[in-house]
Amino acid sequence: MSFLELHAVRKSYGPMLALAGVDLHVPAGSRTAIVGPSGSGKTTLLRIIAGFEAPDVGRVTLGGQVLANGPDSIPAHRRGIGFVPQEGALFPHLSVADNVGFGLARNDPKRSQRIHELMQMVALDPAMLTRRPHELSGGQQQRVALARALAQSPRLMLLDEPFSALDTGLRASTRKAVAQLLGAAGITTILVTHDQAEALSFADQVAVMRAGQLAQVGPPHALYLRPSDPATAQFLGETIVLPAQLAQGWATCALGVVAADDAQRRGAAQIMLRPEQLQLTQVPAEPLDLDAEASYGVVEDIDFGGALCGLTVRLLGEAQAGTAPLLVRTPAIHIPPLGATVQITVMGQAHVFVESVTV
């Protein structure tokens, strides 16, 4: 059952259309990530949910309560929604204790106890309560901001690029800790981020925005492996998109005949593979039977990336002459040398895009 529902939400700023009729359903207790390029409408959508903006038309409902129906909107402070902005936005002149307890009544006898509980909830030492924000690390500041948002026991938590100011290692560990905390508390959460990998790892549901609309919404695994169109596929990660001919669940393409995830379609189509689906095996350069079902190529470039490396492979054979070099992701321990001839094996199924194309 949906806890948060948006129906036909539109928003314009003068002549600029920011949201062009957005429908979104968020289940109770789930984590949803909204991703998209700059200017796609992500932040506008989050601000409308929070109550900082009102839609021109459309309805926002939370737990059965109508928060906005067009311009008629409940103020942000009456929505019971927590909000963690980019970089935390802590009050620099206040101690950690006063930041965490900012929304709690000062005459509440349980205020101090609640602040200590919140510090424990976000895995921070209560000894930090007397410090100021500048005396904390970036990850600690984000946890304080989260504790401040949790102080009001929100029905919904909104996170606006909360990890973007952190370095890579700290970003991953903080993101994981926050996801575990919110999951344990059963708080429905929406994360807005530019980082596709962050969205895929954090969320139960990912919503991809493009030009003020939701291009696709679904579980991370489904969106990554079965995107609705090439633009969504490329936004969520590196892709290999090839023209193909479909028949009985198989696709004939520049890589030979590969299994496809659509057994009903026939004829021309576009298929997608992720670079990690290609497995390379070094073989002698001669002799090669380029008319056989096997697919071969030559390693033209190696981008060493530690655990996972990128290889550029040029396909061999007359039928592959017009195909652009392929990007392959492979573990460092299995890298063939530059200039090596390799046999290419496709693992898993190729994804068939919904619309037919001319090839």
From TrEMBL:
Gene3D superfamilies from the UniProt entry:
2.40.50.450, P-loop containing nucleotide triphosphate hydrolases
Q: What Pfam family does this protein match (any one)?
A: ABC_tran
> Does the keyword field hold DNA-binding?
no
Residue ranges of every copy of the ABC transporter domain listed in the record:
4-236
Write down the superkingdom of origin: Bacteria
Q: Establish whether keyword Phosphoprotein is in the entry.
A: no
Q: Which SMART domains match?
A: AAA
**GO molecular function term, any single one:** ATP binding
Q: Which UniProt keywords apply?
A: ATP-binding, Cell membrane, Ion transport, Iron, Iron transport, Membrane, Nucleotide-binding, Transport
Q: Which PANTHER family match?
A: SPERMIDINE/PUTRESCINE IMPORT ATP-BINDING PROTEIN POTA, SPERMIDINE_PUTRESCINE IMPORT ATP-BINDING PROTEIN POTA
What is this protein called in UniProt? Iron(III) transport system ATP-binding protein
Organism of provenance: Rhodoferax ferrireducens
